Amino acid sequence: MTVSTKPLDVCLQGLGRLEYRGYDSAGVACxxxxxxxxxxxxKAGRLSVLENELAKxxxxxxxxxxxxxxxxxxxxxxxxxxxxxxxxxxxxxxxHNGIIENANQLKFNLQSEGYNFVSQTDSEVAAKLLGKIAxxxxxxxxxxxxxxxxxxxxxxxxxxxxxxxxxxxxxxxxCAIRRDEPLVVGLGEDExxxxxxVTAFVAYTKNALEIGQDNAVMIRGGRVEATDFDGNPVEARxxxxxxxxxxxxxxxxxxxMDKEIHEDPASVRETLMxxxxxxxxxxxxxxxxxxxxxxxxxxITVVACGTASYAGFIAKYAIEHWVHIPVEVALAHEFxxxxxxLTPRTLVVAISQSGETMDTLMAIRHAREQDSxxxxxxxxxxxxxxxxxxxxxxxxxxPEIAVASxxxxxxxxxxxxxxxxxxxxxxxxxYRDEIHGVVQxxxxxxxxxxxxxxxxxDVVKSTAIALVSRPAFLFLGRHVGYPVALEGALKLKEIAxxxxxxxxxxxxxxxxxxxxxxxxxxxxxxxxxxxGNVLHDKVVSNIEEVKxxxxxxxxxxxxxxxxxxxxxxxxxxxxxxxxxxxxxxxxVPLQLFAMDMANAKKLDVDKPRNLAKSVTVE
Length: 618
Ligand code: F6R
Known about the structure:
The chain is an alpha/beta fold. Helices cover 38% and strands 21% of the residues. The chain starts with 5 loop residues before the first helix and ends in an 18-residue tail after the last helix. Strand 11 (215-220) and strand 12 (223-228) form a beta hairpin. The protein folds into 3 domains: 6-246, Aminohydrolase, N-terminal nucleophile (Ntn) domain (Glutamine Phosphoribosylpyrophosphate, subunit 1, domain 1), CATH 3.60.20; 250-443, Rossmann fold, CATH 3.40.50; 449-604, Rossmann fold (3-Layer(aba) Sandwich), CATH 3.40.50. The site of fructose -6-phosphate has 14 residues, from helix 9 and helix 16. Fructose -6-phosphate binds next to helix 9 and helix 16.
């Protein structure tokens, strides 16, 4: 049996790539033949704190290693609460994502048997319990069987979990169980990997397996065995990662967010790629929903959270216009707890970059229970939301690492638009030429986004720097500009920690205008004045109204708009484009603005406080 520093090195590298999922503490544990107990190291703070500690006190070479970066749910971020957690006898180490709902009862039982607890976490309960189960198996059978032990553990836990464990008595295996938390296997040559996201191991292999709900998996060298919790073998779905390891590198950019904003054009282009036949008709064979079912759809309900919900909100305007069916946009966490009206003719569209957002996952489960068809618009292969949907339309934004969503947002709008136009095609709601005209407009958007990136960068940056000390910002928009305003407000809030509020410009006089006083920055998304767009003049009037009350106005407007030039203090220009396409360009200066403001405040733009990239708890 070979031992080396590779397991730990691979683990730390993987944690570096996954740190965007949680970054309040980190830890690793290793096993090797001849060890009496697992060796481990864990520290509160960023991964670099752990790495410094390991540089001072290196761990011995090992055969297997597990590692974790944490986003605290149970217990504050601290060295003690960091993972891994260790069994009472020190033989087993375990890491856990999720929330164990019966932890208190299990802890009470273990305490009454003499087990001691040092942390405030539910995960330590799982570690102590797994240690007990593993020892019981040894007593009963005379040999260790970590795989059987984790399966038994899985049956005893309620709540959500992805758990990985190692045992010094079987130092060549890593075992795992999952329920409602992501878990994928990487298939290397003579080596295997387990992670919550392929990003962790894509430098070593692009071949992966999805681990199903309530399944257990054991990896040993290049061998992988998957079963249900009763030990019956199960088929795990194989897939190949379609991007390179370089996609998860910063590649010379100052931050992932900077890189990803500059990937907005490619994100739209790639999402459109391969979705048309030679005649220019939209082909979405991958949907696997037959045309007769789609023809019958009489309502769409979008379920999503945060930025993804704003993409759905934008799509509402387009799809209602093109397909003439109602589109409702529901925040996934609210949807589930009301009585949404769903029928077998409702198409539920779940939008999620990560494919793991628990609120959205729960919403689609609810929808499927009501016999509605669920279609996922998702950016992550092998994730839970597409797996549990009837159909999936992947966005091809590539991995998004910065916590604040940017390139995924424009890809989500693009995918929603493709879906809307496809429905219009299938239902005959638009003429072919009309659809082709819209598609042409969509295809021109990557070039227009590029124009914005090149033309607006300087003015956006100088504006952000000039306004760095302003405590609050308002964002206004109408029609598709309204969700863009909401998204601009969210971006600035989450990474620059400014108090922001986005609202429909028409609401101004119904209350929010009371917030406007001397110097308050107000960002206004101005629709095009072309083609007699009545909304243009109304939004310009809104600018005048806030300006008259002392606001500092920043307009996002179409190139050469003379009215805006007259009233706005600063203008972020967009090139001419159809109204329904404008969100794809209008959001770009707002993404840059948030990033520049965060940089000006010397904040970590990729990892804002209190947040994590994948919100896998409700
Ligand atoms: C904001 C942001 C979040 C996510 C939301 C949904 O920048 O990233 O609001 O959009 O948490 O995440 P996904 O799309 O992974 O379901």
